[in-house]
Amino acid sequence: MTPSPLVLDGLVVGAILFALGLVGILARRNLIVMFLCAELMLQGISVSLVSWSRHHGDWGGHVLVIFVLAVAACEAAVALVFVLQAFARTGRLDSAAWQSLRESNLPRTIDHELPAIDTMPLRFPKLFPAGVEPPVDQDALLEREHV
Amino acid sequence: MIASVLPAISPGTLLAAAVTSTAASLWLLLPRGQIGAAERRSRWLGGLLGLAALGCFIATGHRLGGLGEETVFLIVSLVAVISGAATVVTRSPVYSAIWFAMALAGVAGVLLVLGAQFLGVATIVVYAGAILVMFLFVLMLAAPAGLAPYDRVSNEPLLSAVAGAVLLGILSLSIGRLTAEPPLCCRMPSKAAAITGDAAPATGLPAVADMSVDLLAENHVARLGGELFGRHLIAVEVAGVLLLVALVGSIAIVSRAASADGTVAPARRAVP
């Protein structure tokens, strides 16, 4: 039985969300952002489950998504505690701060010197001080652009 | 629509183009320690490439399964996907969390379109209302001022982007293969046919539309609750115990760590 187009679309959206979350987990170094990406993967899974539930016409997918919600709440509570403990120990939300736990044959993550962020200087509108006549360019007065 | 404009390109080529541009755009968008004009240029280029990848995916999906049939679905899924990508690539974790809330709204819309009304609402309530606020609390507690250096670089941005895009390509291919009709010998027996004792494999199959109507019928939440507390009662109890254990466990971890540190007063106090 071929799934309906809507079911296929739901599966594709779930796959895209899952892959995006995977990229975030692999690439980002902020612990909290990694966590958000894990939640994004869970969202992709939820969309897929509901699509399959619609395809098969039973409630299994819905019930499973409810349990995914419950487990995600537990996971967020416990893992955020761990994140806070990690921050209290290292002062950073950096996953590379824990790289002494890596395998012994893996290379060390080395932070290269990052270019400084050039903060834009605040630009204020140029206003002439009140009550003072602006200086007049005498040469400009002598010139005539249009004859 | 788009597929009719591009009739010459085969779906496989489109899918390959979509996967390649997904990888390139994610690599361009991920933080790589640049500043100023170079960062802005790579972000713009990555965003444009990402939009091109989305267009390729829409065109491919129209051929593979019929994406673009439901306008509402298209809009909410675009919201979900674009906000999800922004969650992954945004430099600042706070903005990342806000984008995640936006992605949750999109996902809730997708769930609503797919007929899961209770889950759409529950996603907003539980995720955006509780879990996301918890994330923001932790960010406020722990994040340093300004943009930290570890937010401005990534672990292996090229390899991660390629890995995600390849996974996406494989998943889309296998989803596209679902539309291919299986040979008659290997068809899965239908559950409804098995229940009713209808042995005829081709004629006894209820149409997909009928069964989705079953999900969309009235008393949706009541029937979902009946299913949840009927067939899955023990699982519900276990989930409740799990929530309690997580609550107690997180409090225990915090209080023990605080008292072991010596810097914070012990959480356990004598209660009169």
Would you mind describing this structure in some detail?
- The complex is a heterodimer of chains A (147) and B (272).
- The relative contact order of chain A is 0.09.
- The model of chain A has no long low-confidence stretch (mean pLDDT 85).
- Chain A starts with a helix and ends in a 5-residue tail after the last helix.
- In chain A, α1 runs antiparallel to α2 and α2 (31-56) packs antiparallel against α3 (60-90).
- Chain A has 4 helices and no strands.
- Chain A has 147 residues and is an all-alpha fold.
- Chain B is mainly alpha-helical and 272 residues long.
- Chain B has helices at 2-5, 11-29, 36-64, 71-89, 93-113, 117-142, 157-177, 191-196, 208-216, 220-230, 233-261.
- Chain B is flat.
- Mean pLDDT of chain B is 78; it is low at 198-213 and 264-272.
- Chains A and B meet through α1, α2 and α3 of A and α3, α4, α5, α6 and α7 of B.
Structural class of chain B: mainly alpha
Outline the biggest β-sheet of chain A. none
| Number of helices, where a helix is a run of at least 4 consecutive DSSP H or I residues of chain A | 4
Strand content of chain B: under 5%
Based on CA atoms alone, the radius of gyration of chain B comes out at 24 Å
Radius of gyration of chain A, in Å, reads 29 Å
Oligomeric state of this protein: heterodimer
Give the overall shape of chain A, derived from the CA principal axes: elongated
Weakly predicted, low-confidence segments of chain B:
198-213, 264-272
Structural class label of chain A: mainly alpha
Number of strands of chain A: 0
Secondary-structure element string of chain B: HHHHHHHHHHH
Question: What is the H/E string of chain A?
Answer: HHHH
The share of residues in extended strands of chain A comes to: under 5%
